[in-house]
Amino acid sequence: MDLNNPGLHHSISCYLSNKHASQIAYDSIIRSTLSNFLQAEGVEDCLSFKAKESFIKKYMGIKYVLHDMCQDSCMAFTGPFEDYDNCPTCGILVYLIGTW
Question: Which top-level group of life is the source organism from (predicted)?
Fold first, then answer.
């Protein structure tokens, strides 16, 4: 996809402008754009939240990483703690947290 495409550019701009908003808010903005600017150049290339995430990950080479973490963030279960099932500090079960 052409990075200079207006629809793609609008999708990424909306995402960056609303980075603290919900996925629902982002998708609502894109739906509004699609319904109000039907004839605009590149509007058909506006991306849903999931499609935008996939595009950015693919284009930037970002990979998703899972970390075994205590739910209360006491510790990460890596290195010498990678085989633990419970947090030695609070006793809570291991919890997977994903990061980009």
Answer: Eukaryota
Q: Supply the range of the domain harboring residue 78.
A: 65-99
Instruction: Check whether 77 has a pLDDT greater than 50.
Output: yes
pLDDT at 100 over 50: no
Q: How far is CA 66 from the centre of its chain?
A: 14
H helix intervals, the chain: 6-17, 23-36, 49-60
Chain mean position to CA 44: 22
Nearest to 40 by CA among 75, 8, 82, 66: 8
Tally Cβ neighbours within 10 Å of residue 65.
9
User: pTM above the 0.85 mark?
Assistant: no
83-61-67 Cα angle (round to 5): 15
Q: What is the pLDDT of residues 27-44, one digit of tens each?
A: 999 999 999 998 999 999
Residue 1 included in any domain? no
3-state secondary structure of 95: strand
